[in-house]
Amino acid sequence: MRRNLPIAALAAAALLAGCGSSGEGARTDPEKGHDADYLNSALGRELTTLDLYTAAMPVLEGRDAAVGRRLRGHQQEYVDAITKAIRGLGGEATGEATELELAALPTRVELLTRGHELESESLAANVEAAPRLYTSAPRTLAATLAAGHAQHLVLLRQLLGAAAVESIPEAFDVGEIPAPGTDPSSGEG
After folding, report:
1. How many Å is the maximal CA-CA distance in the chain?
2. What is the DSSP letter of 104?
3. Any alpha helices (H) in 1-107, and if so which ranges?
4. Domain that holds residue 155
5. Which residues of the chain have pLDDT under 70?
6. Count of structural domains, the chain
7. Count of Cβ atoms closer than 10 Å to residue 149 Cβ
8. CA-angle at 170, arms to 137 and 157, nearest 5°
């Protein structure tokens, strides 16, 4: 599948990043250890978002369901790439999903809004981390993840009712724009 080539290339580069003179990678090399720690944090965020999209599938219909399936597929690819990158650094994948209170998100709008929040958090974290990572494969992976989450946010904004023009992020959006229909001053969105 040609569309998976960039993620596969990143994963291969991450595997190579773990090779070298340090012997045990993340266990003995502080820079690789730092990068593996960050990637485990990213893994936890991606697993949480994957869980949300999996749980949302029975609630979504039509176009929403098609987008939800695609986003869920992307999340699985992100989880796989991050796991491979951690192993490539000589680390252990220990990131865990945060438990979601899905009973409190019964409606389509609430699920999509929570997806928007999780995607925003991941975008912000990856933009912040990319220049602070030491090895090239995790840096590239963080930048690629940020781009993917930014694209997801556009789709979620449209599903939440934003017109095409309104769904386009600001020029330097780093995950701070609230979901359509939420009032950021109310503390709810």
Report:
1. 53
2. G
3. 5-17, 30-56, 62-88
4. 25-172
5. 1-23, 104-105, 183-189
6. 1
7. 26
8. 90
